[in-house]
Amino acid sequence: MIKVSACIVTHNNVKYIEKAVRTLLDSVKTDNIDFRLYVIDNASTDGTVELLIAKFCDRSNFELIENDKNIGFGAAHNQMIEIINGEFKSNYHCVVNPDVEIRDDILDIMVSYMEEEEQSDVVQLSPRICFPETGKDQILGKRNPHFIYLVSSRLRGKKPSWLLSRYAMLDADYSKPFEIWNATGCFMFFRTEAFLRLNGFDERYFMYFEDCDITREMKKLGRVLFFPHAIVYHVWARDSKRDANLKKIHIQSMFKYYLKWRTI
What we know:
By secondary structure, the chain is α/β, with parallel strands linked by helices. The chain has a single domain, classed as Spore Coat Polysaccharide Biosynthesis Protein SpsA, Chain A (Alpha-Beta Complex). The protein has ten helices and nine strands. Strands 1, 2, 3, 4, 5, 6, 7, 8 and 9 form a nine-stranded mixed sheet that branches. α2 (48-56) links the parallel β2 (33-42) and β3. α1 (17-25) packs parallel to α2 (48-56). The termini are far apart.
């Protein structure tokens, strides 16, 4: 039996967390997968913990971990390292945002693909990400986030510019898997062995850019693919455009990324 672990890190996401947890728990349709979902709460004050206890703590494949302060996205996800290398030694590990929705058996689909012999060098899959209301694709970066690409993403209009199109690799054939350099953090599917080799996320990023960073690190270990046969629905609130504190954190993470990789 193949073991799959997943982790959602949440901080004051009571508005979305129930749908994310419920649809993920219900997404496994085969007896070939032993699935366990962990939610790590970063000191929420909006009733998130109380909701999760009331709705899901009777599920045998669900576990809630409570932190007494907000330690950030990557650091919280890295709490899984001891678990997936110990009490639940998973073959594959998912990093999931609290504002996603699963509508199909995508874990079965991704596991089946990764288990194919010719995909043995694939260390990470990035599924197709769509808006929940319309089902349309979200235009997300798939190349390394050079500064000019980020500017084009922030200034996007009704139609993507040629820079944004290049950043998102919109000229690729989206009907089949293809190699990418940057994967969105809203849903990341790793070989656990690779995730452990990297010791998880770089904790210098409190939030933002840790997904770009770990994808770049993963590519040192093997192939990273965009995988259109699995679809995740993501609210994509883009809070850093409206919240001044999150915008500050976003900019700080951007500079940390560029200093680490010595590129702009």
